[in-house]
Amino acid sequence: MTVEGLAQRVARVREEIARVQAAHGLSQPVAIVAVTKGHPASAAEAAARAGLADVGENRVQEALEKIAAVGTPVRWHLIGHLQTNKARFVPGRFALVHSLDSPRLAEALSRAAVKEATAVPVLVQVNVAREPQKGGCPREDAPALVAACTGLPGLAVRGLMTMAPFTDDTGVQRRVFGELRELRDALATPACPLAELSMGMSGDYPAAVAEGATMLRLGTVLFGERTG
Q: In angstroms, rounded to a whole number, what is the distance separating the alpha carbons of residues 82 and 101?
């Protein structure tokens, strides 16, 4: 698969989103974050031409190289694990960090944001499925982490993120995504509504949409298998 035909693939994804929402009586906006990890910078340019204003990268270094190379205005999302020593690269470069998973990282991002006199929008990543190989704080730690983040200068907590297990079992997918939505509903306040739910990737995004996702992180379904 190449960037040729990307607009048609985006259209098919949007049609599937609309179909699932109609089937479940949902109408919330759903943003598609085009994940360009392992693809050249031209993939981000192609995403923008196909009407996708949001581009996601897993690694800070790869993201910085593409940010420098891409001339088309896009909103860059950092969706992979972020080491605390890389927090200084985030302010002013990323529209949203999806993977805040510890108080230590929150404090590092806060310091970096204050130093740059700006705010860093973040999502708290929750390991709902309790998979040891995946990032995210345990569900029971999420309330304290959200509270800590909202109390730090320079951080703007926008919502929650999770990943489902790699399985074709739609029931498992929906259970994980549903638990994140329920957690969001329990933690949301008028001052911090946690409006964004980043959940759903190429293999499970219909289940995420059915459970109320507002952001999908899609790579393979748009660009094919990555090269790196």
A: 9
